[in-house]
Amino acid sequence: MSDVTVIGLGEMGSALARAFLRSGLRTTVWNRSAAKAADLVAAGAGLAPDAASAAAASPVTVVCVSDYAAAAAILDDAVLAALAGRTLVQLSTGTPREARTLAAGMEARGVRYLDGAILAWPRQIGGEEAVIVASGPQAVFEDAEPLLRRLAGGVIHQGVDPGAAAALFAAVLAYLAGHWIGFAHGALVARSEGLDLAGFGETLAGLAPSLGADSRHMAAVIAGGRFAEPESALATAGADIARLVQQAQDAGIGDAWPRFAADLFRRAAAAGYGAEEHVAIVKVMG
Ligand code: NAP
Fold it and tell me: Is 67 a pocket residue for ligand 1 (Cβ < 6 Å)?
C-alpha cells in the first residue's frame, strides 16, 4: 500500500505527485503515456501497471487529467471496483454540471467522492500561494484535507454541493480571462508607445492590493444592489475606455478588446446606468 495515488501526470498532475513525494508520502502514479512517469519514479514514486492497480494501491486517489471526458475514459469498471469504499479526489477542471453528474455516479458505485479545482500554476503546487477549492460531503473533505494541505497553502471547503468548487473555478476563470486579455492589450499599448514592458508589469503588481480591495467592493455593490453612490461613475469609466479605442487606432494596434469593452459600457449608459457604479455593466450582461 502507498499513502496516495495520482492518476494523470501532465503538467499539473506531475506537480501534485512531486509535492506528495517531497512531503514524504508514499506515492503511486499512473498515466496513459507511461513515459511521463519516469522522473517521478526516479524520485521515489511507485508506477502502477494500469489505472485499476493504481487505484487499489492507496486509500485516496487524486485524478488530474485534461477534463471530465478524460477522467471518464479512465474510470472504467475495473477502476471503480478498486475505488469502492475508498476516496477519489477529482482535480481536473470541469463544469459544475459535470462535477455533479460524476459525484452521483461515484456515490452509486460506493466511492467517497470529493470534487476540487486548483487555483494555482504547477510551479506553485506545494507552496503557500497555491489554493485548492473542494466540494462534497464534509466527512470526505475532512479526511482528505491533510493530503490536500501537502499540495496547497490554501485549502477551502466550498460546501457539500459537489458542483460548488467547479462553480467558483468558473467564476475565477471568467475574471482571469479579462485579466489575460487586458494585460495583452496593455502590453500592446505599452510597446506601441515606447514604454518598458517590465515596468508595466511592475506597475500592475504594485496595484495588486488595490485590485483585491476593488474585487471585495464590487462583490458588495452587486450583492447589496448598492450601485447608486459611485466614486467613479459608469459613464466616466466608459468615456475613458472609449479613448482606448482612439489610442489603439492612433498607434496602429488592434482595437478588438477596447471596442468590446467600450461597447459594453456604451450599452449600459444607453440603458440609463451612466450615473451608477461602473460595475453596473453587470445589468446589461445577464
Ligand atoms: P496536460 O499537461 O495537458 O495533461 C493532460 C493529462 O490528461 C495527461 O496526463 C494526459 O495523458 C491526460 N489525458 C488526456 N486525455 C486523456 C484520456 N482520454 N485518457 C487518459 N488520460 C488522458 O494538462 P495539465 O496542465 O496537467 O492540466 C490538467 C488539469 O489541471 C486540467 O483540467 C486543467 O484545467 C487543470 N489545471 C491546470 C493548471 C495549469 O496551470 N496547468 C492550472 C489549474 C488547473 P497523456 O500524458 O497520456 O496525454
Answer: yes
Q: Where are the beta strands (DSSP E) in the chain?
A: 4-7, 27-30, 46-47, 60-63, 87-90, 112-119, 127-135, 152-159
Task: Confirm or reject: Cβ of 116 under 6 Å from ligand 1.
Answer: no
Residues 87 and 227 in one domain: no
Is 190 within a domain?
no
Cβ of residue 65 lying under 6 Å from some atom of ligand 1: yes
Pocket test for ligand 1, best of 6, 33, 39, 66 (most atoms within 8 A of CB): 66
> How far away, in angstroms, is 29 Cα from ligand 1 center?
14
Report the distance separating Cα 14 and Cα 24, nearest Å. 16
How do residues 158-176 score in pLDDT, each as one tens digit?
A: 999 999 999 999 999 999 9
Closest protein CA for atom 1 of ligand 1: 10
Which pLDDT score, from 0 to 100, does residue 152 have? 98
Q: How confident is the model at residue 112 (pLDDT cuts 50, 70, 90)?
A: very high
CB 48 within 8 A of CB 5: yes
Candidates 206, 168, 211, 144; CA nearest to 4 is 144
Residue 18 belongs to what domain range? 4-159
Q: How many Cβ atoms are within 10 Å of 66's Cβ, its own excluded?
A: 14
CATH of the domain at 280: 1.10.1040.10
Residue 231 has pLDDT above 90, yes or no: no
Residue 180 lies in a domain: no
CATH number at residue 57: 3.40.50.720
Same domain, yes or no, for 206 and 136?
no
The tally of domains found in the chain comes to 2
